[in-house]
């Protein structure tokens, strides 16, 4: 049976507070006609600190797309390899045992991809099967776990290494004065995480997977790409899309496991409003989001990394053996991804 072992988390050295970022945006956009509203939205994100691959003065300085992507290659590989090595140690697993490598990242572009760089630096076997996902955004962590479950159904006994790398600060655009830019500047942080999926280990036993692409929501979470790089854009109506997705997800939970209320939860942060809609729609107690809120508060929204961070914290005070759990995340599309499982001690 395929179990997600204790994940690892790799954080950059530079730490920035929300107050620092709000002050920067206030100075950068002092003539903005909705400055007060924009700054209040930044403060409402619940984020207090985040980790960045560069000091704030470098993050906020002008950079070309090429400069950003070179930084992505350097730091993305370094942090990804660091997280992977720690995850292998946590799972008592050797590089030679890895059959599959799954890499998720939506914050940069490389050819060959991060998967090739990470596989080479780890010294994985040359025949390792690699899957790389670059456009699933914040759903990436849950998406990777769902794909790992499918791989293990096809090849029982396989060993899979998942690595998530997100360097969101490389998308900061000094000249972007949109409200979405203010919010994303306050919300997103940099991090990498990794986890091993294999049999006969304690952790989250993967069971069933769910995925839904919401109709008429393509533009709700998106990148606009220009000569300077990525401009992240979100539509405030995303919370309504999430709310509308909950009844179908609740029905699916009842069908596959005859449960609608899991005994523990590994939820992507998204933001306070997203967590509220999930809590309301699935009738999950608000305290089940405590670890997600802790991740958001201390590290910001780290996109695909979040579910591994929350799962890592879950290991620190683990559920009872055989407790039912749910992993859930949302990404571009708008896509809902969920994975059910059981805790194995």
TrEMBL record:
Gene3D superfamilies: 3.40.47.10. The active site is at 138 (acyl-thioester intermediate). Signal peptide: none annotated. GO terms for molecular function: acyltransferase activity, transferring groups other than amino-acyl groups. Coiled coil: none annotated. It comes from the Bacteria. The keyword Acyltransferase applies. Residues 211-337 form the Chalcone/stilbene synthase C-terminal domain. Residues 11-197 form the Chalcone/stilbene synthase N-terminal domain. Keywords: Acyltransferase, Transferase. GO terms for biological process: polyketide biosynthetic process. Belongs to the thiolase-like superfamily. Chalcone/stilbene synthases family. This is 1,3,6,8-tetrahydroxynaphthalene synthase.
């Amino acid at each position: 049976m395929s179990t997600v072992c204790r994940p690892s988390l790799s954080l950059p050295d530079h730490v920035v507070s929300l107050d620092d970022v709000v002050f920067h945006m206030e100075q950068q956009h002092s003539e903005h006609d909705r400055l007060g509203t924009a700054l209040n939205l930044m403060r409402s994100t619940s984020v207090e600190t985040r980790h960045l691959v560069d000091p704030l003065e470098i993050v906020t300085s002008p950079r070309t797309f090429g400069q950003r992507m070179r930084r992505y290659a350097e730091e993305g590989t370094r942090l990804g390899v660091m997280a992977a090595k720690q995850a292998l140690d946590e799972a008592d697993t050797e590089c030679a045992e890895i059959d599959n490598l799954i890499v998720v990242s939506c914050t940069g572009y490389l050819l060959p991809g991060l998967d090739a760089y990470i596989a080479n630096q780890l010294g994985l076997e040359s025949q390792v099967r690699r899957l790389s996902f670059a456009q699933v955004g914040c759903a990436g962590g849950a998406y990777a776990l769902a794909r790992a479950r499918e791989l293990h159904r096809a090849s029982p006994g396989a060993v899979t290494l998942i690595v998530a790398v997100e360097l969101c600060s490389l998308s900061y655009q000094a000249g972007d004065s949109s409200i979405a830019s203010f919010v994303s500047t306050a919300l997103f942080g940099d991090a990498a995480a990794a986890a091993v999926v294999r049999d006969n280990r304690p952790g989250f036993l993967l069971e069933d997977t769910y995925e839904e692409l919401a109709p008429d929501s393509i533009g709700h979470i998106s990148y606009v790409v220009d000569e300077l790089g990525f401009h992240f854009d979100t539509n405030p109506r995303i919370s309504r899309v999430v709310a509308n997705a909950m009844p179908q997800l609740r029905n699916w939970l009842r069908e596959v496991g005859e449960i609608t209320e899991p005994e523990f939860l590994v939820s992507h942060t998204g933001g306070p409003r997203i967590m509220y809609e999930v809590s309301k729609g699935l009738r999950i107690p608000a305290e089940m989001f405590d670890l997600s809120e802790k991740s958001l508060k201390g590290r910001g929204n780290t996109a695909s990394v979040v579910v591994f961070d929350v799962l890592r914290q879950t290991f620190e005070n683990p559920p009872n053996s055989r407790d039912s759990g749910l992993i859930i995340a949302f990404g571009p599309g708008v896509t809902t991804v969920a994975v059910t499982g059981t805790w194995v001690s």
